[in-house]
Amino acid sequence: xxLWGKINMVKEIKSWKDYKxxxxxxxxxxxxxECQQQALHYLENIxxxxxxxxxxxFRQKNELQSQQKAKLVLLDDFKPDTYFSTVLNxxxxxxxxxxxxxDALERIEMAVRNDVVxxxxxxxxxxxxxxxxxxxxxxxxxxxxxxxxxxxxxxVRWKEKHNKLVERAKNRESIKHYMKQYGGVxxxxxxxxxxxxxxxxxxxxxMRFHDKNMIAKKxxxxxxxxxxxxxxxxxFIRNVCAHHGRLWNLNIVNTAAPLDDFVSINQYRVFMxxxxxxxxxxxxxxxxxxxxxLYELLKSFPNAENGAIxxxxxxxxxxxxxxxx
Length: 325
Fold this sequence. Notes:
This protein is mainly α. The protein is built from 15 helices and 4 strands.
């Protein structure tokens, strides 16, 4: 018996279709295709299934089943005035949005990482992996991280992931040098070079309150806990971007509290986090043009004749126009 024969499938797997058949299927369901040759080109180079996530909002609602099941149920047919070109423009917009977000997130990651390394390194070069140390001035015992973090499984898992990343990077010249010269023990300013955003955000969450507050103050944030939430949310978005996920209407799982100066912004949509990126970048590089590039991109949001999508789906406030600041 084949593997497929052993699987208890709720629905039968759909049969394979060639690109021309897939295009005909879209047309039969009511999608307008202005240039079939161009549409075939994009189906061949992007993929039907990947693009399906972008035409999902254009599908008609099944009113009866939605009412019976008390949840949104969609038909395969598209809403009137749905065009392949609009779907493609939405895909291109989202791609540009991901690249712009990654540009900001890389700079934010480097800046915050340097803040953490500089502060903890001053306490002790091994503050990240041997937090229990002796203060060189007072000779008192200190814990370089928050005790509630150090004494948990979270910290055990953090060190396990840290050690795996160091092991993976052991052939890098900088890592190899320290491995040879110092018996494999890496000071925080060296080991930080192998961290990812997730490891950084987890370590920041495990720092002492006053240390987190000190770094948060640099970015105009009142409380370290708030910056901790920001970093957790930004790491989630970074992972979505790095794996080419849809960003424009993403439902943010790891949410941060609403911004004090933008309380009306939806914290479950990406726009609030774009605002956070902009606020942090203005501290990192006041001359950055990132906000202007974001402004220009938002102005290019595709116009759907049938109103199936709008920039408000990103969490952009309904009142007012897009501003540069």
